[in-house]
Structures are given as structure tokens and as C-alpha cells.
């Protein structure tokens, strides 16, 4: 006789506990003394860019100039509008090449582009 053996159940997949380890760990701490003006400058740069003060200091040590963080939702919307206006301008150029008078529409579109650019970069105005 052939005694029936129960078929073994497949082993359960083990789940790793907790969050995965960070690729780069910051395991050393320093105490840094700054002049009041330097601290204000660092704090302002952190506020403008959206990075932490520590991240800005680490980037400076790596030789990277921290300019600006990712665009805000409002800025992304302005960029989308610029893409649409650029497409419109391209279509107007094509129409102008076939002899249509598009000067007024092109001027109006360029005015909208300039307004959006001034909104995105007020220091350039």
C-alpha cells in the first residue's frame, strides 16, 4: 500500500520589517556657529528653495549651488499655459507662411507669453 502523504504547503514569503534602509545615511552630527547674518541668509535660502538648512549646507560642501526647489503647482500651471501659447504661435507661423494675415493674433499671443514670463520670473521684469 501506498500511504498518502499530504502535499506541503508553499512557504509564506517573509516580509521585511519596517521601512527600507536609506541609500545614504547621515550618521554624523556637527555643531556649527554662524554669524547672525549668515544664519538669516541660510534660513532665507531654505525658505525660498524648499530645502532644509542641512541639505543646503551638504550641497554647498559637495560644490553644488542650490538655486531653487521644484516648481510649485502654480508655476507648473504657468508652464503648461506657456506650452499651449507656444503651440498657438507655431500654428500662427505656419498660417503666415501660407499667406494668411495673423499679425494681430500673434501679437496678442506674444503679450500673453510676456505676462506669464513676468509672473514666473518677477526679478527679470
From TrEMBL:
Residues 1-11 have a biased composition (Basic and acidic residues). Pfam families: NikA-like. Residues 1-25 are annotated as: Disordered. This is Uncharacterized protein. It comes from Hymenobacter coccineus.
Amino acid at each position: 500500500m501506498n500511504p498518502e502523504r499530504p502535499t506541503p504547503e508553499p512557504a509564506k514569503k517573509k516580509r521585511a520589517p519596517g521601512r527600507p534602509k536609506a541609500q545614504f545615511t547621515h550618521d554624523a552630527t556637527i555643531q556649527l556657529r554662524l554669524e547672525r547674518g549668515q544664519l538669516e541668509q541660510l534660513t532665507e535660502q531654505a525658505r525660498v528653495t524648499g530645502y532644509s538648512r542641512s541639505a543646503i549646507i551638504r550641497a554647498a560642501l559637495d560644490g553644488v549651488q542650490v538655486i531653487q526647489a521644484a516648481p510649485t503647482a502654480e508655476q507648473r500651471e504657468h508652464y503648461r499655459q506657456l506650452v499651449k501659447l507656444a503651440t498657438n504661435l507655431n500654428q500662427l507661423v505656419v498660417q503666415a507662411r501660407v499667406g494668411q494675415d495673423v499679425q494681430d493674433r500673434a501679437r496678442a499671443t506674444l503679450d500673453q507669453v510676456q505676462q506669464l514670463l513676468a509672473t514666473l520670473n518677477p526679478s527679470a521684469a
